[in-house]
Specification:
The chain has helices at about 5, 10-30, 100; strands at about 40, 45-50, 75-80, 85-90. It is an alpha+beta fold. It folds into two domains: about 5-55, no CATH class; about 55-95, no CATH class. It has a two-stranded antiparallel ribbon with strand order 1-2. It is globular and about 40 Å long.
Length: about 100
């Protein structure tokens, strides 16, 4: 099942956008308490989890380099469900373990 076939709980994108806009305002105003966690939101159960993410020494994005946005190095893109939604794919990355990112096993 995908959001194309099953749909999206309507408040989910609004909650996400509100959090992102707040973080952008913090950056623009020079605030020091910027959230650097990965946030998992379950809108159905109203649960929110913060996963602490450590910088990866081999990750260009972790160090402010975003060459993948310019489609260098064989980067691929794919259209996601919804309108005007695109995901940038790194062909060298095989997968992501959320347990590993969150520091749990």
């Amino acid at each position: 099942m995908t959001c194309d076939t099953a749909g999206v709980v309507a408040p989910a994108p609004f909650i996400t956008a509100s959090l992102q806009a707040t973080e952008a305002l913090k950056i623009l105003t020079g605030a020091r308490d910027i959230n650097r966690d990965l946030i998992s939101i379950d809108v159905w159960s109203a649960e929110m989890k913060h996963l602490k993410i450590a910088r990866n020494n081999d990750c260009p994005s972790c160090h402010g380099k975003y060459e993948f946005l310019d489609a260098h190095f064989g980067t691929r893109t794919t259209s996601l469900c919804g309108q005007n939604a695109v995901q940038v794919l790194n062909p060298g990355r095989k997968g992501v373990s959320l347990q590993e990112i969150g520091g749990t096993s």
